[in-house]
Predict the structure.
Amino acid sequence: MQVSTNRWWHLIIHISVIGLFLAFFAWLFFSFFLPSKTLHGQSLAVPKLVGMSLEEAKRYLEERQLDYVVRDSVFSGKMPPHTILEQHPQAGTKVKAGRHIHLVITPQSTPATKLPELIDVSFETAKRRLERADLILGNISYKPDIRHNTVIGITFNGKIITNGTSIPKGSRIDLVIGGKSNEAFDVPNLTGMPQEEAEMLISALNLELGVVNYIYDEPDQDIGIVLRQSPSASGEMVGDSLVNAQIHAGEIIDIWVVGSPAQKPQNQLKEEERQEKSEKNKSEKPENSNKNTEKSNKEKLEIIRKKKEQELKNKAKNQPKKEVKKPNSITN
């Protein structure tokens, strides 16, 4: 009986020793070997992915046994396509292996947008509208113009464009801003010039052509010649005074030009015809007026005469009749 009991004890001891060895090796496997191969249970710091391309970030995460999910796509004019703009969790955050990192990236293709209303708006307003439309302010140039600090021209890739033109987001838009030159110069003398030459000179001096007035009552002057201008030219005598006027680039000059009667506007021709008829009627009026006056006076006199006659008749009718007394007869 004792021999059998000892065998059982030896068996138990052997099993216990084997169990301890198995437990020890399992501890070594899960604590050292397996984590070194799979990083299971180990905290990892999230790398900084913002600014990387999507392909670069994908390889970087795979090496660290992390994964990613594209949460959204947002356009950015400052970043190329498929560039990471945002990440969650943020860089440096501790996570477990296999964790998904949520990303916001730029789209693969650049969407289009319409150029906002920029012409004839202030420079500050134009800058804000470009920013809201995801467009970039490019080169700024200035041109003398009465519309100071106002957008007077827009170009894209060297071509003139207008409000509402469809262009890719992130495009660089160049603006032409109107401004008044600080440098003053003498007002040019346009009198006696053909209209075309006068307009060319105005443009060459960066001045603005204002109102062109046509004069049709100068038969001795050649058609198309400038007769007057406003402001008057420097050095010109106006009355007894010598004009010493100066002008700035961007300011306006009005001119008066000899026009052809055949080119008169229809409304001006009609107005002249109306005036001629009016004058003709005035010249005929006195004679007709005298005749009408004489006729009217005769009619009035006749009416008065008839009225008096009628009054006399009525008066006679209304007077009582006087009784005539017969003389008494004398009886002999």
